[in-house]
């Protein structure tokens, strides 16, 4: 069997590019084609070097992981380690789907012309077979993500929330908000947002009715005994939602919260209650917001 290096280079370049493009769509990233081309070319060059090299190191799993990190970093320029690992995970998942679809198609067309060397599958199958496999895989993975997203019903977006503060427990309906990533900036504790009127049985009205003054540093309307008891308990939480780009919430730590739905019940102690001084909805469908990360 004759293997042409230029064909192997083109095959890997195209496949790598399609995979990275699909990952960008899944992650909803701003795709920069020049970055994807550079990353795809690096991956293609590695494939050729690994194939022709007699050194075992080029087929090691460690080197492949390093290569994956380099490819993802160049393609999407993640801002932190957490974002890098998320993008790397989606990259691997997408690669497995693409590889499975491509190899399945190749095996159906010309299984006798596939062989492996240094951990790489090669063969004399037509380039159009690879491209067809990549297109099929692209359709499969994008469609799958859309199906999974559509399965999240409205019912799954709401839950019963119980909160205990100062020995008093309240109960309300809360929405599971995928956009609520609020955290208390000093301790990095996740924040659950509640309307202030819910907390009248738990926190003095003098505090709840003067949240804007407290955030502005004005404590004149708050009695001294309440001020001395509560000022050390209150937190200041910056946010960029709820209709504001640069807002602030007053927060307080509860004894615990309990999140319930039809299938699960979860008690959480390490959480902060962010007190919102308006209504979250006009019709009162829910009065709290819970970040998906808390669940």
Could you give the topology of this structure?
Layout (H helix, E strand, L loop, with lengths): L4 H23 L5 H20 L8 H16 L4 H29 L4 E4 L2 E4 L3 H24 L7 E8 L2 E10 L5 E2 L4 E7 L9 H4 L2 H5 L8 H7 L3 E6 L7 E6 L3 E5 L4 E4 L3 E5 L11 E4 L4
Parallel strand pairs: 4-12, 6-11
Antiparallel strand pairs: 1-2, 3-4, 3-9, 5-6, 6-12, 7-8, 8-11, 9-10
Helix pairs in contact: 1-2, 1-4, 1-5, 2-3, 3-4, 4-5
Helix content: 40-55%
What's the gyration radius in Å?
Answer: 27 Å
Low-pLDDT runs of 5+ residues are: none
Helical segment tally? Answer: 8
Q: How many individual domains?
A: 2
Percent range for β-strand residues: 15-25%
Report on this model:
The chain folds into two domains: 5-150; 154-291, Cathepsin D, subunit A, domain 1 (Beta Barrel). 43% of the residues lie in helices and 22% in strands. The chain has eight helices and twelve strands. It has helices at 5-27, 33-52, 61-76, 81-109, 127-150, 205-208, 211-215, 224-230, and strands at 114-117, 120-123, 158-165, 168-177, 183-184, 189-195, 234-239, 247-252, 256-260, 265-268, 272-276, 288-291. Helix 1 (5-27) runs parallel beside helix 5 (127-150) and helix 2 packs antiparallel against helix 3. The N and C termini lie far apart (55 Å).
